[in-house]
Amino acid sequence: QVQLVESGGGLVQPGGSLTLSCLASGFGFETSMMNWYRQCPGKEREFVASISQRAQFADYADSVKGRFTISRNNRKNMVYLRMNNLKPEDTADYYCNYRTGFGHDYWGQGTQVTVSS
């Protein structure tokens, strides 16, 4: 059974930093690309970042490029999202995502990030 459990969200001031974590289980983590998405209030869920199986490649949404860094630890089945220079528009529920080769999406329960002074 695939499980994704996010943690690390919270309230942070503009310009601050947070690191989100996702613990994955129930599938071949080290052979799977992993993704982070977010859903801002009143908006659709959107792509944030992805990382290849051995972290050779990473991709980012333009809105977070240069501020967010995705990483992974295959020994611990963990994927991370380091978020620097946070802005109010980064306020969202953040979700860890695993997409199978057949295109089926698995999601965690999400972790809430609020950027506010």
Keywords:
single chain; 117 residues; mainly beta; seven-stranded mixed beta sheet; four-stranded antiparallel beta sheet
Sheet with the most strands, sense and barrel status: 7 strands, mixed
Oligomer, anyone? single chain
Total number of strands: 11
Sheet-strand content, in percent, reads over 45%
What class, by secondary structure content? mainly beta
Integer average pLDDT = 97
Walk me through this protein's architecture.
The chain is mainly beta and 117 residues long. The chain has strands at residues 3-7, 10-12, 18-25, 34-39, 45-51, 58-60, 68-73, 78-83, 92-99, 105-107, 111-115. The strands form two sheets. Strands 2, 4, 5, 6, 9, 10 and 11 form a seven-stranded mixed sheet that branches. A four-stranded antiparallel sheet has the order 1-3-8-7, with no helix packed on it. The radius of gyration is 13 Å and the shape is globular. The mean pLDDT is 97.
Short characterization:
0% of the residues lie in helices and 51% in strands. By secondary structure, it is mainly beta.
